[in-house]
Amino acid sequence: MKKFTILVASTLLLACSGTYPGGALYFPGPARAAAVLAGTATLSDPGLALYRDPRSRAAVESFYSGVAGDPQVGRIILQQASAHDIPLPLAFAVAWGESQFNPRAFNRNPKSVDRGLFQLNNKTFPHVRVDDFYDPQINARLGMRHLRFCLNEGESELVALAIYNAGTLKVRKGTPYSTLNHIARILEYREKLEEDFLRALLGRSSQGSAL
Length: 211
Fold this sequence. Notes:
- Helix 1 (2-17) runs parallel beside helix 11 (177-209) and helix 5 (71-83) runs parallel beside helix 8.
- It is built from 11 helices and 4 strands.
- By secondary structure, the chain is mostly helical.
- It has a single domain (2-209), classed as Lysozyme (Orthogonal Bundle).
- Strands 1-2 form a two-stranded antiparallel ribbon. Strands 3-4 form a two-stranded antiparallel ribbon.
């Protein structure tokens, strides 16, 4: 039901108030809006379709930049999530759960040191220089690539997050309680992001319909 509501709000947004980077309002016909959203049925996150369309990208960037607390970090995560077909609320929930959107985040574990936005380490990425882990662009690219691998491997977000946090071998033996608690926090935040995005989308579509 939530995804259907997002699709309806998305159609209203695109049909009534699409905005180009130059700031001029654009009023596409219903057929154009339907064409843009035609592929969203195969997407786990309609927000990706809105981000990929130039008329609605600014609205998506504005929302998620606010979530990240830094426009540059927000745009980088959006770019890499789109490149690897990661649902936007999942990508941002993982970044929140791992580092609170801090590119300089550092966490020493018994067997590894996790660094950067997506808390990557040399066990998973042995050829990456330490300084590069703190580069948001590199970290987000590698983080989203690894999350895509986990999604393909686990075939569900729940299992994928377990693999991302604990590794495939530990998950096969039995996911640690600490990982389960971590996943629960991320999924709860993911749901909150979806709800907040829907509210923001409905707000923009209602403003557009009044124009």
